[in-house]
Specification:
single chain, Arc Repressor Mutant, subunit A, 5-stranded mixed sheet, 10 helices, 39% helix, disordered C terminus
Length: 319
């Protein structure tokens, strides 16, 4: 067989929905048809692209690379097939976007502009996810990139729509001299005696979920520094041995810092796209969502610590 555009769309949809059943519903076909087509594509590729796990169907390391490239091809094909928006009423309007502390923002904006070149974005940095929702509700921004946590989903009115971009494990940043530096996955209890840097209340459940994880592991940190500032500054303090910190899975460590997964993955964080249904068209929302997802997948493809974790937890050998 040869790969066709419809195959690439299916791979992207599987990555989006994390479910073969939901993919079948989206594409209007049966689940066995999706499963069989995926098997044929994997035979063509010579390697598994997805594996089933407790969190659903998850891309393997190789699958992430394939999906990132598939999204680029699909986006270009959609841009070619879409009639020009030049001259349409409102085509040159400014999309007001608020985003919390996330590394996906630059790549997301770049990809969204490539698909919708007439759409201008006005970006505001807002730390609190609850505040982002409030700004959208009040009509001050149109769309936001926020975070929430499993079991603590963001609350909003029916006027807003929400779509999860990705749910990722939270890792820990340690100085390279830390006793746990040789661990593949660091047990949280081994960090009980460390000082911690924690960011303040984000309106979505943090740092409560972190303290819950500490209690579940059986300890209370002796010292907690509240820190809300530059990520490089935080890493410099970690490198100097002043404390450790929970970080995003895509975090790129500076010299003197190592990023490690936590054993048992006790902490997860979800990136969420939120928008106002009346002020943001379906086309724009879909474009921004896919741009955000592609930007994230590119980031994790360049994060060796994440790739190593995914290989241990999700990848299975082909038999």
């Amino acid at each position: 067989m040869e790969l066709e555009l419809r195959h690439l769309r299916m791979l992207c949809t599987i990555a989006d929905t994390m479910s073969l059943g939901r993919t079948a519903t989206v594409l209007g076909c049966s689940q066995p048809a999706v499963s069989n087509q995926l098997k044929r594509i994997e035979r063509l590729m010579g390697e598994d692209l997805f594996v089933r796990g407790s969190s659903g169907v998850t891309p393997t390391g190789f699958g992430v690379e394939v999906v990132v490239q598939a999204r680029e091809v699909v986006a270009l094909a959609d841009a070619i097939g879409r009639r020009s928006t030049a001259g349409r009423p409102g085509a040159d309007r400014v999309l007001r976007l608020a985003a919390t502390n996330t590394p996906i923002l630059p790549g997301m904006l770049q990809r969204a502009r490539a698909v919708l070149p007439t759409l201008a974005a006005q970006v505001s940095s807002v730390y609190s996810s609850a505040e982002i929702v409030e700004l959208i509700e009040d009509g001050k921004v149109d769309v936001g990139v926020a975070v929430d946590y499993p079991g603590r989903e963001l609350a909003h009115s029916a006027a807003l729509a929400r779509r999860g971009i990705v749910t990722e494990p939270s890792f820990v940043a340690l100085p390279t001299t830390h006793p746990a530096r040789g661990r593949l996955d660091v047990p949280l209890i081994e960090l009980a005696g460390d000082a911690w840097f924690l960011t303040p209340d984000d309106g979505a459940g943090w740092p409560g979920v972190c303290y819950d994880a500490f209690r579940a592991a059986g300890f209370t940190p002796p010292t907690v520094h509240e820190f809300l500032g530059d990520r490089d500054e935080l890493q410099r303090m970690i490198a100097d041995g002043l404390g450790i910190s929970i970080v995003q899975a895509t975090c790129r460590p500076i010299p003197g810092v190592i990023v490690k997964p936590l054993a048992g993955t006790p902490l997860w964080c979800r990136y969420v796209l939120v928008w106002h249904r009346e002020r943001v068209s379906g086309e724009v929302a879909e474009t921004v969502f896919r741009a955000a997802l592609a930007a994230y997948e590119e980031l994790i493809a360049r994060a060796p610590h994440f790739q190593a974790w995914a290989a241990r937890h999700y990848r299975t050998p082909r038999t």
